[in-house]
């Protein structure tokens, strides 16, 4: 039970805790690496994983609440070593509600050779709307990684960045969206890598990427079904 009097905070801690299981489920992390965070709506706070705790041992009450300068606000454990990076993203990208970090193998391999993943398949056009870019190399310990994430992704369609020789960071409107972006990043990283073993890989035409991205972001799924349906053949 949270000691902070913030409606919905306990539910958010439970959601962030549960989303870490998705990183394991999709093979995006090993041992205790990786983390998920979520902005606390209406407050200059975030919820993030504690440092070095086994995924099997994570519980909602072990989640850390930190402010957007990375300072511990609530929790008995040390916050993730990536807290400063997450905090910098939230401070500088107010539209972001969730941040995820993984060392998923295929995407991290692209980061190790400092190569962006070209938008060569329709799934990339849908989710990323562009190549997945490479961000600068930075060491853990301060907000340098966060600065690299923001400088790379601001004004970019992609919700994922390959931080050079480090791993993947993804952003989203909420933590679940950021986790989805991390899953999709690894999926397309693997597919494009396999394709390159068969031969040269051509990037999709930009006009086609634009159409794919617009359809997926604005039409795909249940979005159209959520619009009110006007009765047919009845005079208003």
UniProtKB/TrEMBL annotation:
Q: Which cofactor does it need?
A: Zn(2+)
- Supply the SUPFAM superfamilies for this chain: AraD/HMP-PK domain-like
Arranged from A to Z, the UniProt key words for this protein are: Metal-binding, Zinc
Gene3D superfamilies associated with the record: Class II aldolase/adducin N-terminal domain
Domain called Class II aldolase/adducin N-terminal: residue spans: 14-193
Pfam families under this entry?
Answer: Aldolase_II
| Database matches in InterPro entries | Aldolase_class_II_sugar_metab (IPR050197), Aldolase_II/adducin_N (IPR001303), Aldolase_II/adducin_N_sf (IPR036409)
Reaction catalysed? L-ribulose 5-phosphate = D-xylulose 5-phosphate
Top enzyme class of this protein?
Answer: isomerase
EC number(s) in its UniProt entry?
A: 5.1.3.4
Instruction: Tell me which family the UniProt entry assigns to this protein.
Output: Belongs to the aldolase class II family. AraD/FucA subfamily.
Q: What is this protein called?
A: L-ribulose-5-phosphate 4-epimerase
Source organism: Streptacidiphilus monticola
């Amino acid at each position: 039970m949270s000691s902070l009097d913030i409606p919905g905070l306990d539910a958010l801690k439970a959601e962030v805790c549960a989303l870490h299981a998705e990183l394991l489920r999709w093979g995006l992390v090993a041992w205790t690496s990786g983390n998920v965070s979520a902005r606390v709506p209406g407050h200059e706070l975030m919820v993030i994983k504690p440092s070095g705790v086994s995924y099997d041992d994570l519980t909602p009450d072990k989640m850390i609440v930190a402010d957007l300068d990375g300072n511990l606000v609530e929790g008995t454990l040390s916050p993730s070593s990536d807290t400063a990076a997450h905090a910098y993203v939230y401070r500088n990208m107010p539209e972001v509600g969730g941040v995820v970090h993984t060392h998923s193998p295929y995407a991290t391999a692209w980061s190790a050779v400092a190569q962006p993943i070209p938008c060569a398949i329709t799934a990339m056009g849908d989710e990323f709307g562009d190549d997945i870019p490479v961000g600068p190399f930075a060491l853990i310990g301060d907000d340098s990684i966060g600065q690299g994430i923001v400088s790379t992704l601001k004004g970019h369609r992609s919700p994922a960045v390959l931080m050079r020789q480090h791993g993947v960071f993804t952003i989203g409107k909420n933590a679940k969206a950021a986790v989805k972006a991390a899953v999709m990043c690894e999926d397309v990283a693997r597919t494009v890598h396999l394709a390159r073993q068969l031969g040269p890989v051509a990037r999709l035409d930009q006009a086609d990427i634009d159409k794919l991205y617009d359809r997926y972001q604005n039409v795909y799924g249940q979005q159209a079904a959520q619009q009110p349906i006007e009765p047919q053949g009845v005079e208003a």
